[in-house]
Amino acid sequence: MNIENLAQQLDEAALRAEAVDQISLQQSFGVDDAYAIQAASLQRRYARGEHFIGLKMGFTSRAKMQQMGVHDMIWGRLTDAMLLPAEGTLSLQKHIHPRAEPELCFLVNQPIDRELSAAEAPDFVSGIAPAIEVIDSRYRNFKFSLEDVIADNCSSAALAVGPWQPTNTPIGDLQMELLIDGAVVHEGNSSAILGDPWKSFMAATRLAAQYGQPIPEGALIMAGAATPAVYLQAGQSVEVRVAQLGEVAFAVH
Questions:
Q1: CA 53 to CA 1: how far, in whole Å?
Q2: 114 in helix, strand or coil?
Q3: Cα(92)–Cα(155) distance, rounded to whole angstroms?
Q4: Higher pLDDT among residues 131 and 228, named by residue
Q5: pLDDT tens by residue, 115-153
Q6: Helix (H) or strand (E) holding 36
Q7: Where are the beta strands (DSSP E) in the chain?
Q8: Which of 62, 103, 130, 177 is most enclosed, with most CB atoms within 10 A?
Q9: Residue 86 forms beta bridges with which residues?
Q10: CB-based contact 101:209 (threshold 8 Å)
Q11: CA atoms within 13 A on the CB side of 46
């Protein structure tokens, strides 16, 4: 299979903000091939000057895993071009059909090149923050197979990260709200993230090591969504509030 060609198709779809057909309709491929396509697509971004800044986790809801017929999480790569500044603005012109979802984010304080245990994990994190992830599939109608979405960098598009809080803050049972224009549209709980967001962080270290992706000091680990995602429209303000952690917001234009 031509991994570079498939990676180019997805990269150019993201650059042009134009949806394409699922690449699995052209050729059948497995999960490992999908991650190879993802890596090749990201290499094109790095060649244009973007820099790796961390990982995002997907399928961190047991219900979502069952819905997709999978038994493990998936992950994508984050770059500096995806990171919105504090109280920043998301441009719809750069996206196809973006959606926002409330998450937690971990700040890595030393390099990680292996799976970490529950006992070790807190020593590798210097802060935890409320966050918003913007997902934006490059496929028409936001429809894809498991392999398609992995190849498409797990729909990674943008993220906003709020104030960092101490790592000893209990995060296993926190109320989380997603607000549009000041009104709550979804409420959830951090326990929806694998029962405990720390489990998502540990899974990120396992999967990154499995696929040869080092996690450097200063990297961000997005733990996964606590509620369904919401389609974004121009003129909206988007905010996430997490009990004990704070708020994060951006505008859409």
A1: 29
A2: coil
A3: 15
A4: 131
A5: 999 999 999 999 999 999 999 999 999 999 999 999 999
A6: helix 31-47
A7: 52-58, 74-79, 89-90, 99-108, 125-135, 156-161, 175-180, 183-189, 220-222, 230-231, 237-242, 246-252
A8: 103
A9: none
A10: no
A11: 11
